[in-house]
């Protein structure tokens, strides 16, 4: 589905991503773990075309998108939930969700599944995004990314600063989305238990390189938690 080959990226003189290669499969959750500042967000930004790739390639469903601008990557089927959510605070919940449909023909309805998954968005449809709690905003950001029916859903630390009950709702939603078999999910996470519970495949990053990788089910025996804590 998504295939990344020998990806390098640098900010000015500082080399951030060092030869990353991996695949993300449809119907599966791939979890990317690593401590603060190792390059996780930079990798996601490279996948979205928000920072330039120095060398290597990014292929989505056989299409080379290494140098494609962000809007074409969205049109090609990548839904992105950025760190810190970045919803539009002055727009209503409904307007935020409609923004997610910008690549679709006018009058395309908001998929009802979003409201089934996150009923609070229906209840708060006409409230301003900025008036929602952090957890509700995270649900809104995920709903907005889902509106256009992505083939690849990328989530950057969706549990950051969120209360435990909403973390459970988000976990359930991600598992359900993977099980539909309609999309691949790439999840960046520092909250180990959440990451382990969802991962089909894991990648552990340290200073712009993968230092461990494997099946999600092997995370405990591979000692990923301890490696993260070092
Ligand atoms: N625009 C930028 N210009 C220069 N350096 C940057 C820029 N953005 C990030 N960096 C540096 O690149 C490195 C990787 O940052 P990145 O945000 O990708 O890490 P991260 O693993 O996502 O961390 P976190 O979990 O804290 O978000 C850090 O050393 C950071 O200071």
TrEMBL record:
Organism, by scientific name, is Rhodocyclus tenuis
Gene3D superfamilies reported for this sequence: P-loop containing nucleotide triphosphate hydrolases
Q: Which InterPro entries match?
A: AAA+_ATPase, ABC_transporter-like_ATP-bd, ABC_transptr_urea_ATP-bd_UrtE, BCAA_Transport_ATP-bd_LivF, P-loop_NTPase
Instruction: Family membership, please give it.
Output: Belongs to the ABC transporter superfamily.
Would you kindly state one Gene Ontology biological process term found in this protein's UniProt entry?
A: L-amino acid transport
UniProt keyword annotations, A-Z: Amino-acid transport, ATP-binding, Cell membrane, Membrane, Nucleotide-binding, Transport
The record's listing under Pfam families reads: ABC_tran
The ABC transporter domain extends over 2-230
- What's the name of the protein? Urea transport system ATP-binding protein
């Amino acid at each position: 589905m998504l295939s990344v080959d020998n990806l390098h990226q640098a900010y000015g003189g500082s080399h951030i991503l060092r030869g990353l290669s991996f695949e993300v499969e449809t119907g599966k959750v791939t979890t990317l773990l690593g401590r603060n500042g190792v390059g996780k967000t930079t990798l996601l930004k490279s996948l979205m075309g928000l920072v330039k790739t120095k060398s290597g390639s990014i292929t989505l469903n056989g299409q080379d998108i290494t140098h494609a601008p962000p809007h074409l990557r969205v049109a090609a089927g990548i839904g992105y939930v950025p760190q810190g959510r970045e919803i539009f605070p002055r727009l209503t919940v409904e307007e935020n969700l409609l923004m997610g449909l910008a690549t679709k023909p006018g009058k395309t309805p908001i998929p009802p599944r979003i409201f089934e998954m996150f009923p609070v968005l229906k209840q708060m449809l006409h409230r301003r995004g900025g008036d929602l709690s952090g957890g509700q905003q995270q649900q809104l950001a995920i709903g907005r990314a889902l509106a256009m029916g992505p083939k690849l859903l990328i989530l950057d630390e969706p549990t950051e600063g969120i209360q435990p009950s909403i973390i459970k709702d988000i976990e359930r939603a991600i598992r359900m989305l993977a099980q539909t078999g309609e999309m691949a999910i790439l999840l960046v996470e520092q909250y180990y238990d959440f990451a382990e519970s969802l991962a089909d495949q894991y990648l552990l990053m340290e200073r712009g390189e993968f230092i461990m990788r494997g099946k999600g089910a092997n995370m405990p025996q591979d000692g990923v938690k301890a490696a993260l804590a070092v």
